[in-house]
């Protein structure tokens, strides 16, 4: 084979459709890699400021309106007679969230018995719960006290 024939068959090889596609693909990947190095990372949107605290006690009936569905969007839940403002955990407790059933409700019994359901009665003294269930409710109370929502 002459030198000229060898060169032209190499060139034919290089310009075959499959190789051209591969070359363009590699160039495209290189472009993406280089571009990603120059892109500035957008800072995450700052969290909305916390709502002013509600300094008041309320009945179970009054609590009901704080289920996150009104324009203010505040979400309160009660555990062991303590009312927690969980508005910042709206993705859990807000309308459509997995734990929306606790919003605006006394959640003590549900949390104690592992049922996602708020109390339906005006006052539930939970005196029928077992020691283990009461302990579970206490653990949830501690978790809400320690959570960064407030
Ligand atoms: C198959 C059952 C369940 C699964 C897989 C599950 C899973 C989860 C997950 C992944 C989270 C989010 C944790 C995070 O991102 O911080 C969460 C949060 C939560 N879960 Fe469940 N869960 C289940 C059952 C329950 C039950 C039965 C209850 C209560 C009765 C419950 C109460 C909660 C509450 C209150 C939160 C929110 C905690 C917070 O405010 O940070 N979950 N769950």
Automatic annotation (TrEMBL):
It comes from the Eukaryota. One of its GO terms (cellular component) is membrane. The keyword Membrane applies. Keywords: Membrane, Transmembrane, Transmembrane helix. Gene3D superfamilies: Cytochrome b5-like heme/steroid binding domain (3.10.120.10). The chain crosses the membrane at residues 14-31. Residues 58-149 form the Cytochrome b5 heme-binding domain. It holds the Pfam family Cyt-b5. Belongs to the cytochrome b5 family. MAPR subfamily. PANTHER family: IP06960P-RELATED, MEMBRANE-ASSOCIATED PROGESTERONE RECEPTOR COMPONENT-RELATED. This is (African queen) hypothetical protein. It comes from Danaus chrysippus. The lineage of its organism: Eukaryota, Metazoa, Ecdysozoa, Arthropoda, Hexapoda.
């Amino acid at each position: 084979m002459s030198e000229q024939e060898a060169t032209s068959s190499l060139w034919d090889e290089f310009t075959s459709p499959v190789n051209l596609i591969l070359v363009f693909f590699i160039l495209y990947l290189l472009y993406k890699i280089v571009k990603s190095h120059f892109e500035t990372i957008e800072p995450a949107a700052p969290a909305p400021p916390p709502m002013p605290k509600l300094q008041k006690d309320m009945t179970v009936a009054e609590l009901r309106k704080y289920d996150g569905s009104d324009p203010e969007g505040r979400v309160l839940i009660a555990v062991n007679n303590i009312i927690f403002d969980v508005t910042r955990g709206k993705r859990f407790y807000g309308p459509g969230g997995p734990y929306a059933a606790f919003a605006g409700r006394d959640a003590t019994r549900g949390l104690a018995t592992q049922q996602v359901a708020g109390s339906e009665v005006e006052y539930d003294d939970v005196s029928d719960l077992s020691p283990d269930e009461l302990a579970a409710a206490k653990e949830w109370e501690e978790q809400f006290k320690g959570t960064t929502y407030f």
